[in-house]
Write a structure and sequence with these properties.
With about 100 residues, the protein is α+β, with helices and mostly antiparallel strands. The chain has one domain. The protein contains 3 helices and 2 strands; from the N terminus they run αβαβα. A two-stranded parallel sheet has the order 1-2. α2 links the parallel β1 and β2. The chain is globular and about 50 Å long. It starts with 11 loop residues before the first helix and ends with a helix.
Amino acid sequence: MLSGLASSPDYSQVRDALLRNSISGWKTFRPLLLAHGDADTSVPVDSTEDMYSEMMDSGTSPEVCSKSVYPGLEHDEALIPCMMEGLAFLLGVRDN
């Protein structure tokens, strides 16, 4: 992670851009899969946990929005397992 990213004035434009491009949970009827490695230091797993909670709080059914957290996997290590699960998820959506 960049030193000072969270508070340094040098990165204020980056922080502002990240906030402008962030999304919140919404109610959906379309299948959605959230997948994350819980040892991710690039994007904290809390972002996925929070999004899932927001989706549920917005009225999305847990049958529609599913979440998978891969124990002990960093950002790059979770790539293949997440992609494999994502592909299976998409094939399942297509078949239904």
